[in-house]
Design goal:
Length: about 325
């Protein structure tokens, strides 16, 4: 009874952990997709600079294709673990444990291999100005789109200040993406009438803060650590459940085996053939406490022994 309660408790815990695997894996995929677009924009703006290397070192563990594939595979593994727990199938549970162990080793190796503190300083932001003269050129439309996207999403203009556009390019006013309220020609109107309509903060500090880590990256790191902890707990519970199920299958075989027949060395006569021998054979019955003789077996055995002794005495006197 206690073993059945323990198995039921283990199964409930594994159901909950598999549900956590689904939820956390889906969250990792969602946050990774959310952070991928601004990361691609930053990598475009910082191409061939130290900032690009720092951004790759910071975000590669979170958006690496290996980690995305691991999260997708973990969803499938959690489904197999749920089915194995539901059916108490030793083969499925063994495959579930082995898969979790492999995934945990891959995650641990990837985290150790990609962990490195990016060496970037604020002075490196000045290198972004070298990308500004190509803004608006026909063959650099991808760079123009990256600048407009970043300035719109992060509400910044230029590298240090919006005047960087006037210094590094032949433009007479900043791009329209620098306006807080964008419409065609808004930057020209703000340049000549009201500069407060332009974003006053440069994009250099924004990129520096992005490379050092964003809230989305902190969420991904927390989810990664949480998945690792849940995997360890799930492997321990799976091993315990496997042991309990295997032991539970072995025990009934031992319980069902009948006990050896009881022999009495003090019996004066032993009958091996004939109806008397059949009558002397006890009939075993199965009870909740084990195997036992029927109630009248002992009385019948005593009567047959008395009858055999009487016959033996009459034979000897004759």
């Amino acid at each position: 009874m206690a073993r059945e309660d323990a198995v039921r408790c283990l199964r409930c815990l594994l159901y909950a952990l598999n549900l956590l695997f689904w939820v956390m894996s889906a969250c990792v995929l969602g946050v990774a997709a959310w952070i991928r677009d601004p990361l691609n924009t930053v990598l475009t703006l910082t191409a061939h600079t130290r900032l690009e290397e720092a951004a790759i070192l910071t975000y590669s563990p979170a958006v690496h294709p290996v980690m995305i594939a691991v999260c997708c595979f973990l969803i499938i593994v959690a489904m197999v673990g749920y089915c194995g727990t539901l059916k108490c199938n030793l083969l499925l549970l063994s495959w579930y444990f082995s898969s979790l162990l492999v995934i945990f080793c891959v995650e641990l190796a990837s985290a150790v291999w990609t962990y490195d503190e990016p060496s970037v300083q604020r002075s490196d932001m000045i290198s972004l100005k070298s990308r500004m003269p190509n803004f608006g050129l026909q063959r650099y439309q991808w760079l123009t789109h990256a600048w407009n996207t970043f300035q719109t999403e992060f509400k910044c203009c230029g590298v240090i200040y919006f005047t960087d556009w006037l210094e590094m390019t032949e433009m007479e006013w900043p791009p329209d993406s620098c306006c807080s309220n964008q419409y065609p020609g808004c930057a020209r109107h703000a340049h000549y009438h009201d500069l407060s309509d332009l974003h006053q903060e440069g994009c250099g500090p924004k990129i520096y803060s992005f490379i050092r880590g964003t809230k989305q990256l902190q969420v991904l790191r927390f989810l990664g650590v949480s998945i690792g902890v849940v995997q360890i707990l799930a492997m321990v519970l799976t091993l315990t459940l496997l042991w309990a199920l295997y032991y539970g299958r072995k025990t009934p075989e031992l319980d069902c085996a009948p006990p050896p027949p009881v022999t009495h060395d003090s019996d004066p006569l032993s009958v091996t053939h004939g109806p008397s021998a059949d009558a002397l054979k006890p009939s075993w019955t199965r009870t909740n406490k084990g195997w036992a003789n029927p109630p009248n077996t002992t009385a019948k055995l005593g009567e047959h022994q008395f009858e055999m002794e009487r016959l033996s005495y009459q034979t000897s006197t004759n």
